[in-house]
# Entry
Amino acid sequence: MSLRGLVAKWPRLVRGRVILVVATVAVAAFAASAYRAARDAVEVSREAHRSWETRAAIDDALDLVVDAEAGVRGFLLTGKREWLEPLEKARRTLPVALADVRSRLREDPPQLERLVRLESLLAASLARLYMEVRSGPASGHHALSELLAGSEAAMEAARREAAQLTVAEERRLAERRRRQSLASPALRVAMAVSLGGGLTAMAMALLLWSDSKRTQARLVGEIAVRTEAEQALVQLKRDLEERVETRAAELALANTRLQRELDERQRMQEELERANTRLTHGLRDLEQRSLAATNFARMIDTLQACRSLDEAAVVVARWMDRLFPGTSGFLGLLHPSRDLVEAATTWGTAASMEVVFGLEDCWALRQGRIHVLGERAESLPCPHLSGTAASAACLPLTAQGELLGVLHLRSAAPRLGLPWARDEADHLGLALLTAGSVALALANLRLRESLRHQSIRDPLTGLFNRRYLEESAEGAVRRSLRSGRPIAVVMLDLDHFKALNDEHGHAAGDAVLQELGVLLLGLVRAGDIACRYGGEEFVLILPEASLSDAHGRAEGLRESVTQLQVRLPKGTARLTASLGVAALPEHGTAAEALLRAADAALYRAKAEGRNRVVVAPLQERAAPTAATPQPLAALPRGRRKRPTAPGA
# Structure
């Protein structure tokens, strides 16, 4: 049966009511579909805003830890407390920010679990930074590198966890939008069907308008209700559109603020990188300065251990290449004549130079201060400056008010400078410090040599004294025994020296002794030892001289003494000398035995008439004994009385 026939059999009142109900249901279905579509759009917008706020809060939390890490770096490098403000801010605000994110993710257990892991990683990073701050500023580049490596690893783990949170939020939002996009066609179909059914029902109600006024009035009421519903829907749609536009404007404004914050963060990151670069360069300069200070201290320690000026010159040449790389120069010492400077050592390209010049040829020695020739200096070059040198510096070596020499530095570069030096003055500061230290070391060495010379030399004759004889004679004998070579001892005593003193005075006696000292220094070889034994007695130690050689040299010495003429206030003194000779192994194998044998021979020379050389009598060789020989200090000192004729 058709729908028209079925409707015809129904009572008119029932048909009218049914049609109105159908129309009302259709309109309600259309309104519900529209409301559902609007509600889904609002829900998706809320989900998008929540996801954006969640990601922004996570990024802010990461930025707080990154800023705290940068501040701790600055504090560890500079020690300034203002660099710790980002760390204190992170410790205060990080728990609040993460609690806000946790409240948004409380209905999403997987996301909440990821958030808990991220929160533990960030808290661990802050705790590690706080422990580094409590331990104090880092000492050296290695400690800072360990901190940077540990912080970078912790932040990398936190960024991975944050990335997982962000990706999960984006997936959730995408799934919501996908469901909305799938439901939208069905909603549109339902709305279209509802709208079509409503229109059909209204058409049927209009056809039945003539059946009954009561039905017409009810239909008019239903139309009014529907009109109000449509107006409400239109108003709702308008409100929804306004809310969407407002929300879109808010999102655009938030996006603008976020972009501005990102730009500001990028700028701060670039500034931080530049600051890190400056800090890296500063650390490199500090390391080079520390190396220069270490080299300087080691050079000073080595100079303090030197025993002679030659050793000190070698030390200066070796350390100058390390203290002033890329430069060359020389260490010039003042000649004893006090009018010339002679290079004690050279280094670099000046190693092959022979430097000898007068004091007037160096501006630094003329003025008594440093003299610089370089790119900015307006000084004239020193006359002694030879070769090509774009820059040079002469530093006078002065210690305790005494001029010792000059330290000269030169370079082929237009500017005399070190790699770590900020300017030429910084470089010259190290050069001045080096010159002062070298001058002090040289002065100490000269003083030490002077004291040693005074301790082993007789001040009147310039010969070695008896103390030096005691220190060196036994060693010379031992070396002779080890090598199997002979060694001889000659003991000399001036004849009638007491009478000369009584007649001419002690000043004349001193003049005679001085002339004899000059004579002995001119006759001995380089390895011989000539010393004043006491009074007018002298001893010669002649290594590698046999008994016959020593006898011949003693005769030559005696003749030289007889030819020696010393002018005195009361006339010219003519001298003679008596000499005793002994040698190893003929007269013993110990220095004490040789000296006693030579002394006995000298007694015989005096007893036999003076002015002669007597060789000690040969003795039988005794078997070596382990007994310790009597030290030389036990021998009598000074002028001794001999059993000779009167006037001896």
Notes: The first strand starts at residue 328 and ends at 334. The chain has 14 helices and 13 strands. Residues 45 and 247 are 8 Å apart (CA to CA). The radius of gyration is 56 Å.
